[in-house]
Amino acid sequence: MSKPKVAVIWNASCGGCDESLVDIEDKIIDLADKVDFVLWPCAMDFKYNDVAAMKDGEIDITLVNGGIQNSGQEKIVKLLREKSKIIVAYGSCAWLGGVPSLINLKNKKDSFAVNYLDCPSVINPGKKVPMAKSMADGYELELPEIFDTLYTLDDVIDVDYYLPGCPPMPAMIINALGELLGGKLPPKGTILSPDISLCLSCSRNGTKPDRMVMGEIQRIHEIIADPDQCFLNQDVLCMGPATRDGCGYPCITGNMPCTGCMGPMKNQDQGAKMISALGGIIDGYDEEAVDRILDGIPDPAGTFYRYSTAASYLGRRREKNR
Amino acid sequence: MPEESKKNKKTVLFLCKCSSNISDTVDFEEIKKWAKKQGDIDIAAVSNLLCSPDGKKFYTEILKSRDAGKVIVAACSPRLHEKTFRGLAEECGINLGMVQMANIREQCAWVTPDKTEATEKAKSIINSALNRLGRSKEIFRRTMKAEADVIVIGGGIAGMEAARTLSRAGRKVRLIEKNISLGGSVMKSEDLAPGMECSPCLMAPILAEIRDDKNIDVITKAEITEITGFFGNFTMKVKKRPRYVEENCISCEECFKVCPVSVDSEFHEGLGKRKAIYSLFPGSVPAAAVIDREHCLHFTDNSCSACVAACPFGSINFSQEEELLSIRAGAIVVATGFTAGDVSRFSQLGHKSLDNVITSPEFEILSGTNGPTGGRILLKNGKEPQSAAVIHCAGSIRDDGIPYCSGICCTHAVKAGVMLRKKYPSIRIINIHNDLVFGTPREFAFYREAGANGTEFVKCSDLASIKISALSPAGLLKIEGDGITAVEADMAVLVTGFMPPESAADIASMTGAELDINGYFIPDHELLNATGTGLDGIYTAGCASSPLNASASVVQARAVSGDILSRLIPGKEIELELYTSVIDREKCAGCRLCISSCPYRAIYFDHDTKVSVINESICRGCGTCAAACPGGAIEANHFSDEEICAEIEGILHD
Amino acid sequence: MTEFKPKIIAFLCSWCSYAGADKAGGQKLRYPANILVVRVMCTGRVDPRFVLKAFREGADGVMVLGCHTGDCHYRNGNMKAMKRMRLLSRMLPQFGIVKERLMFNRVSGGESELFQKLATEMTENITLMGPLKIEGFVKTEGAL
Question: How many other β-carbons are positioned within 10 Å of the β-carbon of residue A291?
Fold first, then answer.
């Protein structure tokens, strides 16, 4: 019997998800024994044409990491959709847009300006920015068109499963692959981590008082954090309550608050929920007092939607009369 | 009803013309046409006046005859008739959660003169109701068993009145008092203004009634250690300290005569003496005397048992022990009273450092027949005072004292002069005041009458500037202050303000009821529920929620009793709030952020199962917790995320 | 070009602001028909998510009107709403939504004129601002 075929593809992401596959350590060797990788640009040399030549549904599982930010990525994931039985949005970028989707708070023009023109370390006398079509030495060159918006994977193609995390933790990867390769398929659309907040398993849950009040909001470097106390109870924002469980809380163990990479619970908007939860514990009786506390959150969108801007209710920046 | 048969039920839209109030502006023909296009509306029925007897008949007949399952009533505000149309629908076997009102009168027809605009808006409103109804769940009326007994904390006039009123209706009442007997602060007054009724005479029959009332269990020398539970189901733990005197004691006072110990009497504000075995005043309830363990020689060095020999009833029992009581009740009335403002920190007022400078509580007890002098007020040198200055707001309305106006002390201040003049008709009385506050026409008349009888009222622009000094040792007092010519007088009465007692804070922390910045219980609602606290079933009467005079305290006690009697009926279960919120235990991660957001402490953390739990008998359905839950584990009944989002969608896309 | 008629969602609490809006009706006080009301028992129920949902579904402005401080039927739900809306309105500009598109204010059951005034002003302001670009929802936007 032939081995299951697996593809891995990397879109708008940092590469950490590819890295995470190797982080499963010696299990990767077992995996390599059990499956045939048919595409993994980060690790192996296959061509997209090889994929295009395959039959529809020939790939058993495709792990897609990263959101979709240009026409090239769009093209390859659409191709992979045709060729794959199961598409897994691998990592929070594919599921929710991830950190790169913070670009949705700006647009293409803004981001080009920062990256290619205004950045102090850039020398670009010709003021050149990426273009889909350009001429060089008399040849017309074509590059993928960069979109104004970063899309989540399921904005672009039909997705079967979602594996959260930035990147997914080894134990989750092994579990998920075990399940999917073993043919034990959960219902389509399943997010492969518990649909409950991180507080459930957090080692500091026990030290949490039943009632909490935040008299100020500090950032983690501004205090010497007690390694056993709930961060919120130490006046430090922790996204744990609005974030999925399943990661094994490595950040908390490292005495850093959760930043929310596992994404929200089902049908929730991570940022709105965290804002709503904070509204119940922030101290202050009048607007002025509340404002003083809120000054401790200099970048609300970046704090609450660090990993989920593209999948949030608003999705991207709105501009009037554009 | 099985799910299948429910599915085939019809959705009925009632359109009420409200005579012509709505139909003059909203085009009903257009709405009907629009409704026909909405696949979800099966029947659209127009009524001239749906809330009229004919309209109601029309409503119920359609609901019954047309197999209705969901109902939209496009008419007036749900604040007016939601109950009406839900009630009627319930009679027709339709769950009340399946009736949705669309307010096309107050918020559409009446505020939108343009017919086209009004009709369009009405469509949006009806569509939002329709869309919401699509996600609505059934709501069920629920009830819960409840205790009908009541605990009253504080045996002052308010507490006693509450206990009496409740007992008259047959309720069992536990009256908890920390002092050795009942009576509270009113007992320390001789006369009550403005009627100048004799306070002990007024109190004696009340005390006797309580003594003889089998429904009222008086627990004195009590310390409350724990209060748990909620409306209908409270449990209180109380330490009852020993009296060392058995209940058969009638306070014949034989033992008082032989007791060799004499200490300052607290009841007399330290101005008189009592023995180590004592009672507060003759006729106190309970009648039994009390041995003060701290000073009694039997307990200090085992050198005396004179009282044992003197007692004709064998009532002395040195081996009595503390009792721990656990009491259950459906409601708790907090009638903890007040303490007087402290003027000791304002040295320029001369209290304690100068002779003949006394506070108003000291004046009250000195002028009382129960007092240390039997009601005589004499100067330190034994002479009768020729003149007296009454200083209003002593230690009040200043940041370093009581920062507020207590609102009732001006009457006390006027009363001090009236009482002095009754004793010494030719005495000169000078009231030094700034603002004057009188709460009722009768109190105002009392003030005017005192003025007419010779009391001088001198306005001082800043009472914090008042300085009292002695012109000679044991001689005349000189009172100076901003904007007044110096006043000379034989004596001065410092009228102090009202403060909550420390015990109020203890009860607040045990129950979780909130106190304001000054330490008074915050009323559940200033106007509509002034005697409630934020915690259902915990009430306040008297000075617990703000300074009140005796008459207002009695009124509150009766109001509280009325509320309790109307809600806690023996054998009848209490109805729970319809729109409570519910936590899905499977989804709750135990982050506890909902607990902080609940205004009623209705949510507790179950440390065994590590989830937050809403006590639905406390929950009032505001839904704040549902918004606060970051995991979406809390659903607000009838105002769920789904329902509200459906309403938003419906109102934006018709 | 047709005249821009903004859609404004107003979250009103049942006890104060909704009663104030009802009273405005009783007095026949006119205000623009653009104000579309969603009734909640308490503004404390208004999850910021509902505000974002309204913007996403095409609202050009959102009003959250609660009870006056100290008057909340549920003790302090209005304070929680104030805190939530305050934090939310700090974030909205990052998403390109000027913060004036979200109004948090307090209207008692008696303040029908105030309700009328706020409803009218909000409509005027939003009309001047123009439509919020609602087609921004990702699935229907861009090159795809």
Answer: 13
The stretch A154-162 carries a mean pLDDT of: 95
Ordered DSSP codes for B445-510 = HHHHHHHHTT-EEEE-SEEEEEEEEESSTTS-EEEEEETS--EEESEEEEEE-EE--HHHHHHHHH
**Which candidate from B121, B534, B652 shows the least CB-CB separation from C75?**
B534
Residue B296: what residue type? Answer: C
Instruction: Please give, rounded to a whole number of angstroms, the shortest distance from the CA of C143 to a CA of chain B.
Output: 26
pLDDT tens-digit readout, B521-530: 999 888 889 9
Residue A318 falls inside a structural domain: no
ipTM of the complex: 0.95
Is the minimum CB–CB distance between C52 and chain A shorter than 8 Å?
yes
User: Is the confidence at residue B393, as pLDDT, over 80?
Assistant: yes
Domain that holds residue C92: 8-140
Q: Given an 8 Å threshold on Cβ–Cβ distance, is C94 in contact with A318?
A: no
Mean of the per-residue pLDDT values for chain C?
90
Domains of chain B: 3-139 (3.40.50), 146-184+196-239+324-338+509-575 (3.50.50.60), 242-321 (no CATH), 339-499 (3.50.50.60), 577-637 (3.30.70.20)
- Angle formed at CA B106 by CA B100 and CA B110, multiple of 5 degrees: 135
Phi/psi at B464 (nearest 5 deg)? -70, -15
- Taking the Cβ of residue B130 and every Cβ of chain C, the question of whether any pair is shorter than 8 Å is answered with no
**B316 and B291 in contact (C-beta within 8 Å)?**
yes
| pLDDT given for residue B525 in this prediction | 85
Full-model pTM: 0.83
Q: Is A137 helix (H, G, I), strand (E, B) or coil?
A: coil
Q: Do B589 and A241 touch (CB under 8 A)?
A: yes
- Nearest in space to B215 (alpha carbons), one of B152, B145, B289: B152
b/e per residue B435-454 (b: at least 16 CB within 10 A)? eebbeeeebbebbeebeeee
What is the spatial distance between Cα B37 and Cα B131, in angstroms, rounded to a whole number?
A: 14
Q: Report the alpha-carbon distance of residue B291 to residue B180 in Å, rounded.
A: 10
